[in-house]
């Protein structure tokens, strides 16, 4: 969702950065692009291990994640749909392909936002969120669950990802993985994570997605 469908990562990064600084931890904004795709509690676990050498408690994880989420709302920036995202969705929908959202986010307003900005493209039953999985990205569980919900095999699917951990998750699930570099990390980070192909934007992908989908169907 973030970084593929919505241009929302800068706001998430600022919310994480300010929250972590308020806790007295060292914070590097680029880290949150590297952590992108993890569940919030998993990110907090990494931060605690860095600072204290041990994991956070479940209560600490829930409290800090709530603080980060509140800060995200306070920033009052309504994320805009990513340019090119609707064109990509329209192309695959016209070909009768199911659209499965696989996100580490657990925002309660998730479906409402998608239905408003991308009406008719997503169904609640075809969504995997941070609340649905035990292991977040880079573990393959989120994408394996996505395959299960769609009722398809790995060889019948394509993944569009923008985060290195998300790429690793999709590759580990055995799915052909398209990376779109919508953040500040070098393309090499995404290709090294295992992406089959890297595009510089969703707009660039929108011009090639029909070719990629049709190629999957004939392979």
Tell me what the structure shows.
The protein is mostly helical and 219 residues long. It has 2 domains: 9-74, DNA polymerase, domain 1 (Orthogonal Bundle); 85-218, HAD superfamily/HAD-like (Rossmann fold, 3-Layer(aba) Sandwich). The chain is 50% helix and 7% strand. The protein contains 11 helices and 5 strands; from the N terminus they run αααααβαβαβαβαβαα. Helix 3 packs across helix 4 (58-74). The two termini are 28 Å apart. The mean pLDDT is 91.
What characteristics describe this protein?
DNA polymerase, domain 1, two-stranded parallel ribbon, 50% helix, three-stranded parallel β-sheet, 2 domains, 11 helices, Rossmann fold, 219 residues
Short description:
The chain has 219 residues and is mainly alpha-helical. The chain is 50% helix and 7% strand. The protein has two domains: 9-74, Putative phosphatase, domain 2 (DNA polymerase, domain 1, Orthogonal Bundle), CATH 1.10.150; 85-218, HAD superfamily/HAD-like (Rossmann fold), CATH 3.40.50.
């Amino acid at each position: 969702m973030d970084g593929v469908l919505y241009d929302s990562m800068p706001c998430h990064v600022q919310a994480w950065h300010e929250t972590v600084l308020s806790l007295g931890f060292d914070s590097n904004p680029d880290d949150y692009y590297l952590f992108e795709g993890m569940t919030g509690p998993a990110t907090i676990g990494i931060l605690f291990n860095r600072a204290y050498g041990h994991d956070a408690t479940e209560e600490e994880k829930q409290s800090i994640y709530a603080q980060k989420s509140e800060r995200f709302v306070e920033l009052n920036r309504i994320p805009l749909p990513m340019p090119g995202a609707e064109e990509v969705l329209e192309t695959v929908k016209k070909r009768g392909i199911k659209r499965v959202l696989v996100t580490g986010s657990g925002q309660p307003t998730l479906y409402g936002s998608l239905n408003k900005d991308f009406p008719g493209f997503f169904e609640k039953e075809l969504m995997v969120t941070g609340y649905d999985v035990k292991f977040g990205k880079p573990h393959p569980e989120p994408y394996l669950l996505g395959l299960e919900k769609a009722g398809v095999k790995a060889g019948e699917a394509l993944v569009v990802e923008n985060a290195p951990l998300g790429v690793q998750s999709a590759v580990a699930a055995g799915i052909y993985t398209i990376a779109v570099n919508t953040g500040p990390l070098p393309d090499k980070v995404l290709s090294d994570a295992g992406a089959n192909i890297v595009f510089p934007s969703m707009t660039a992908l929108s011009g090639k997605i029909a070719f990629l989908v049709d190629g999957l169907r004939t392979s």
